[in-house]
Structure formats: structure tokens, C-alpha cells
């Protein structure tokens, strides 16, 4: 049922966008940009999903369940918060790792904490972009203010 609702909402958004882009030239530009984005993203997504499936087979299920399973509690959330920032690569790596961990016994709360932590604190983004553009002081302030967010996300996810 959720997939049906999501599909209906997406098609509604497509229809609204089509109406808002009244001229044929703007529609053509939008379709070209969409095709370019799909051509860029789909191969990476395909490789990431295959990688996640293969990675799930390589992950030690008993160890993942011990560290990130139902009985791990707060320790799982803290470890996921620490591992997020040190994960190399982009979203295709992080989400593939989270999907693989879910497949072998990690709780959704631990996976959400990991992905949130990676999104907020990825060292590759911090060192390559944030510190040079925003400065060390501003970066440190943002880090201090957003540090509890992954744990809050994980705690809320644990309720469901």
C-alpha cells in the first residue's frame, strides 16, 4: 500500500511539474536534465545494489547482529555514530553498507543512525569542502550543535 501511495504522489508531482513548465522548450530542457541525471545515477545505483548484496554475504552476520542487533541497545547507536564519519566514499557506499548490515541483522535504528552520522559528519566532506569554505571555527560549531542528531534519530527509530 505504501508503494502505491508513493507512486501516486510521484506521478502527481510529475503532472504538476509538467503543467508548471508550460512552454515546450522548458519541458524539453527538463526532460534532458532528467535523462542526464538518470544516465549518471542508474549505473551507480545498479552497482551499489549488487555490491550491497555481495557485501551482505561477506559480512559476519553473527558479529553484525552482536554489535548492531536488537540486544546491542545504545552501544549500537554510539558505534554507528562513530563509524558514519570514517566511511570512505559517497552515498552509494554508505547506503550499500547500511542495506547490507540490515540484511544480516542490524536494526533499522542502527542503520538510520549510521546513515545520518555519515550524512552529517563524513570526514571526506568535512575536510575537502566544509573546512576550506566555512573555516575551522564554523565547522566546529556546526559539529558541536549537530552531534546529538544521529543519536536522536536512532532513539526515535528504536521506538518503532
Describe the structure.
This protein is an all-alpha fold and 160 residues long. It has two domains: 2-41, no CATH class; 59-158, no CATH class. It is 84% helix and 0% strand. The chain is built from nine helices and no strands. The protein has helices at 2-20, 24-58, 61-68, 74-86, 91-103, 108-121, 123-134, 136-146, 149-158. It starts with a helix and ends with a helix. The mean pLDDT is 91.
Write the layout of secondary structure elements.
Blueprint: H1 2-20, H2 24-58, H3 61-68, H4 74-86, H5 91-103, H6 108-121, H7 123-134, H8 136-146, H9 149-158
Helix pairs in contact: 2-5, 4-6, 4-9, 5-6, 6-9, 7-8
Overall tally of domains: 2
Number of helices: 9
What overall form do the CA principal axes indicate?
globular
- Which spans of ≥5 residues are poorly predicted at pLDDT below 50? none
Percent strand equals under 5%
Radius of gyration: 19 Å
What is the residue-mean pLDDT, rounded to a whole number?
Answer: 91
The sequence of SSEs as H and E is HHHHHHHHH
Could you provide a short overview of the structure?
This protein is mostly helical and 160 residues long.
List keywords for this structure.
9 helices, mainly alpha, 2 domains, 84% helix, 160 residues
